[in-house]
């Protein structure tokens, strides 16, 4: 059985001051979260490695995460940020591709004023460059963005993309539509995968597993065992659950639909393939310096 991989977690140091989305509405997150905080949680949950994902819209954030990856044994790769609506994008992409830990990039579509940002001509040109590079592309979006994302994929069908957090469906309200049809439309593109992550923070405060079932069942049916990836969304998920609770929920919900071999893909093998990871043993874990 392949080692388990968490395909979506974050680190941040608040004093860096480029986390524009943070505020008192997420007060418990307004502290540093670094590798020494996560390492014991991974061990308890049986997770060997992680994908570290950007949480700020700056290249300084990307550099910060790559520095962490270089000295943290369990971090297998970094999904960073680059300005996709910049004439300098090709040069910056070439620069970061030289770093072996740079495995993908993510514009924070959900934070942008323009819901159609991904369809801007220069952004589409740069998406084509990402597709040609073979790097992964993380889609951080709300359900309202999905039709625009689908249109972009029609124009750049070779893009290897993954939908973060099921595109944040309205779990607390219990609504499935129009999210249900729009996520199925994305699943029709064979190069698109989906992260089973981020649901607990979209649910009501006193959430339970049955609240999550319709959403997980839908993406399971749409994407299947080869295009689903487990992600914790730690530490954002701590607003609603512990790391162990998130991992248990994903295993419980997916385990009703998939057998051991498929679960090994969802909890590891698919991340190795999607992000182009070395599937060897993890490097020794050093303490944060």
Describe this structure in words.
- This protein has 289 residues and is an alpha/beta fold.
- The protein has a single domain, classed as Alpha-Beta Barrel (TIM Barrel).
- Helix content is 38%, strand content 12%.
- It is built from nine helices and eight strands.
- It has an eight-stranded parallel β-sheet, with helices on both faces.
- Helix 1 runs parallel beside helix 8, helix 5 (146-155) runs parallel beside helix 6 and helix 7 (209-223) crosses helix 8.
- The chain is globular, with a radius of gyration of 18 Å.
- The two termini are 33 Å apart.
- The model is unreliable at 285-289 (pLDDT under 50).
- Pfam families: Amidohydro_2.
- Residues 5-277 form the Amidohydrolase-related domain.
- Belongs to the metallo-dependent hydrolases superfamily.
- It comes from Methylobacterium indicum.
Instruction: Give me the CATH fold name.
Output: TIM Barrel
From N to C, what is the helix and strand string?
A: EHEHEHEHEHEHEHEHH
Coarse morphology: globular
Radius of gyration: 18 Å
Runs in which pLDDT lies below 50 for 5 or more consecutive residues are: 285-289
> What's the end-to-end separation, in Å?
33 Å
The SS-based structural class is alpha/beta
Indicate the CATH class: Alpha Beta
Counted beta strands: 8
Sheet with the most strands: spatial strand order: 1-2-3-4-5-6-7-8
CATH superfamily grouping: Metal-dependent hydrolases
Strand percentage, roughly?
Answer: 5-15%
Number of helices: 9
Q: Give the overall pLDDT as a whole number.
A: 95
Domain Amidohydrolase-related: 5-277
Pfam families: Amidohydro_2 (PF04909)
Family: Belongs to the metallo-dependent hydrolases superfamily.
InterPro entries: Amidohydro-rel, Metal_Hydrolase, Metallo-dep_Lactonases
């Amino acid at each position: 059985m392949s080692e388990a991989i968490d395909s979506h977690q974050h680190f941040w140091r608040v004093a860096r001051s480029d986390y524009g989305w943070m505020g008192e509405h997420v007060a418990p997150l307004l502290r540093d979260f670094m590798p020494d905080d996560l390492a014991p949680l991974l061990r308890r949950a049986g997770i060997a490695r992680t994908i570290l994902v950007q949480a700020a819209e700056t290249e300084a954030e990307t550099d910060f995460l790559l520095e962490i990856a270089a000295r943290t044994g369990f971090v297998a790769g970094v999904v960073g940020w680059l300005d996709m609506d910049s004439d300098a994008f090709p040069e910056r992409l070439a620069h970061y591709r030289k770093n072996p830990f740079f495995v993908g990039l993510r514009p924070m579509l959900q934070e942008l004023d323009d819901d159609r940002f991904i369809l801007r001509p220069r952004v589409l040109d740069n998406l084509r460059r990402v597709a040609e590079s073979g790097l992964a592309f993380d889609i951080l979006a709300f359900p309202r963005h999905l039709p625009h994302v689908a249109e972009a994929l029609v124009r750049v069908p070779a893009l290897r993309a993954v939908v973060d957090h099921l595109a944040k469906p309205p779990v607390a309200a219990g609504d499935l539509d129009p999210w249900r049809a729009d996520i199925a439309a994305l699943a029709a593109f064979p190069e698109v995968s989906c992260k089973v992550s981020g649901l607990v923070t979209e649910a009501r405060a006193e959430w339970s597993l049955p609240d999550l079932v319709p959403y997980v069942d839908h993406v399971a049916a749409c994407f299947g065992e080869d295009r689903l990836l487990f992600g914790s969304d730690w530490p954002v998920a701590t607003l609603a659950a512990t790391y162990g609770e998130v991992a248990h929920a994903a295993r419980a919900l997916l385990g009703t639909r998939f057998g051991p071999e498929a679960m090994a893909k969802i909890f590891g093998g698919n991340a190795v393939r999607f992000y182009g990871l070395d599937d060897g043993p993890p490097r020794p874990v050093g303490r944060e310096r």
